[in-house]
Amino acid sequence: HRHRLSLSLTMPDKRPGDALLNPAAFPEPKVRPNNPNFGSGPCAKRPGWTGDAISDAALGRSHRSSLGKAKLAEAIDETHALLGLPKDYLVGIVPA
């Protein structure tokens, strides 16, 4: 026998996380960090850092895109040269 199950879902107009998507929900902090080079990463940005340092980065791009493939090829070629490997040696980049 086949049974049919019918569900009706109603989404509320406001969900609990909606306020987090609104930048106005986060006023500018009153206290600044001691280090003006604060970054969201695991360490502070070096003094004088600007976004120009990553102007050619493939941010948000797949490794399968032409830009991603070019970046990987460049990294492989530079690693091969840096290590002084024989021409018949291969360098691979794998997820870890």
Record the SSE blueprint.
Elements: H1 66-83
Outline of the structure:
The protein is built from one helix and no strands. By secondary structure, it is mostly helical.
Given the helix and strand composition, which structural class is it?
A: mainly alpha
Compressed to H and E, one letter per element, the order equals: H
Number of strands: 0
Q: On the 0-100 scale, what is the average pLDDT?
A: 79
How far apart, in Å, are the first and last alpha carbons? 48 Å
Q: What is the 3D shape?
A: flat
Computed Rg: 24 Å
Content of β-strand? under 5%
Treating each run of at least 4 consecutive H or I residues as one helix, how many helices? Answer: 1
**Residue share in helix:** 10-25%
Structural write-up:
This protein is an all-alpha fold. The protein is 19% helix and 0% strand. It is built from one helix and no strands. The protein has one helix spanning 66-83. The protein is flat and about 65 Å long.
